[in-house]
Amino acid sequence: MKIAVVSPEAVPFAKTGGLADVAGALPKALSSLGADVKVFSPKYASIDEHTYRIETVLPNLRVPVGNGVEDFSLKGCRLPDSEVEWLFVDSPEYFGRDDLYVDKKTGQDFPDNDERFLLFCRGVLESLKALGWKPDLLHLNDWQTGLIPAYLRSVYSQDPFFSETKTVFTIHNIAYQGNFPSETSKKLNLPADYFYPAAGLEYWGMTSYLKSGIYFADLITTVSPRYAQEISSSNEFGCGMEGLLRARRSDLHGIMNGIDYKVWNPEIDRFLPFKYRADNLEGKRKNRLALRKQMGLPNPRKRLPLIGIISRLASQKGFDLIEACSKELMKLDLQMVVLGTGEERYQKLFRSLRRRYPRKVGLKLGFDEALAHRIEAGSDMFLMPSRYEPCGLNQLYSLKYGTVPIVRKTGGLADSIEDYDPESGLGSGFVFEEYSPEALLGAVNRALEAYRNKERWEKLMRYGMSLDFSWEASAREYLKLYQRLKRNPEPVAVESQSCF
Ligand code: ADP
Question: What is the per-residue pLDDT across 321-341, written as a single tens digit (0 to 9) for each?
Fold first, then answer.
């Protein structure tokens, strides 16, 4: 099967969040199951051509943008660890910037994001044609790729090159929608009726790239079964797309992300000063010491748990709960290390905790891949009090590193962490349901209680380390879906639009 994975970011080239981890790992897993895989992303200025030996594959390509045309080229490389070909849509005008979507100087989205990802979407389709490589399946990820199914259903609908090509559109976070002013519609060269009220791209007077993906793709997936159910059941989770998702209920599937154990594995992790494994946790103890030192935290005289947080500092992640109970939290027998970037409000919160409790809170505001690995390895517990969480990766990394997750019961957190029962000793972490500071404190207290019994705690750690969330199982699920589409030659129709 020929599969083109299209994603606005992919590890190791560019990353702002979990999508990049997925787009970096799933193609390799599909390829090792026998699929022929190419991955398309934009060529941002921050991707160093020299490091990855990126070379021009096709020069002088062009796509229409509004009434004009824009030039781009296709570049590409291979990495030593797989057969996957990594291809980059290179337009210095649109992507020759270090930042991916948000201009660091202004803190705002780039004002031409509509044109940037229009060029990307059409650029991928034109590149496939120019390469002469007919994919059976286009696996699209997030709003930045949402125009592709719309183009396939219109501009390219009579093109024999794509006559067999099916699309799967994956929602990694439905809150990010790529909604642009209605004028954007004039740039896209799509049929005018796509922009009528309630049609495929129209969303409350705006032009929505995410809606386009959900509306026109043959199948839709999201990154955990629970999130699939959440986003189609209420406005709180569906962010306005719940009606359309309900209409496409039979085409919506939740497949849990896996993790790449070649990258996230304490036995071989290249970022760790000390490697370790479930049957010898000495290295974890040493990593904890090193982490405390790096983060400027004193070594406590008694056994005191270190709680890690690595996150985008966004309201989605539940930091208002920490804000609301920070005083009570700081009275407990614990230390915390926090790594994150994002909203000023939460930067301020953690800066102030660091200032007021320098013996308890370590902080780095920034994006730091190496430190993220060290926090996973050096912490005893990992806190994710998310308001919503499509899948979440850090709780899965935590399990593998013997770092017990404390999570809110939502999305992929609910699907991956079983609440610990001290009576039976069953469970993999501490789960709280109600979105409240009291419930969060309750879960932290239960974790601290369990931590006091060293033997039981180590059993809990080892249980988490033994769980398998590798990509293989998820990649097989995706392949099953792709194959289902291949057998079904008819485009899947949207059942109804009554929700709009
Ligand atoms: P999301 O995609 O919503 O940000 P996920 O848990 O799915 O959340 O994935 C987040 C990924 O980004 C993880 O690999 C995490 O380690 C990483 N990450 C988040 N913030 C930082 C940071 N400040 N520095 C390094 N890595 C980070």
Answer: 999 999 999 999 999 999 999
Average pLDDT of the residues of the chain: 95
Pick the atom of ligand 1 nearest to 369's CA: 25
pTM over 0.85: yes
Q: Which of 393, 395, 397, 408 to mutate to test the pocket of ligand 1 (most atoms within 8 A of CB)?
A: 393
Share of the chain above pLDDT 70, in %: 98
Å from CA of 259 to ligand 1 middle: 13
Q: How far apart are CA 171 and CA 19, in angstroms?
A: 10
**pLDDT for residue 461 is more than 80:** yes
Domains 2-258+472-487 and 282-468 agree in fold: yes
Task: Compute the distance between CA of residue 240 and CA of residue 494 in angstroms, rounded to an integer.
Answer: 17
Give the residue extent of every domain in the chain.
2-258+472-487, 282-468
The answer to whether the CB of 444 falls within 8 A of the CB of 329 is yes
CATH of domain 282-468: 3.40.50.2000
Please give the CATH number for the structural domain made up of 2-258+472-487. Answer: 3.40.50.2000
Q: What angle do CA 445, 347, 449 make, to 5 degrees?
A: 10
The count of residues in the chain is 500
Minimum-distance ligand 1 atom for the alpha carbon of 173: 3
Tens digits of residue pLDDT in 259-284: 989 899 999 999 999 999 999 999 99
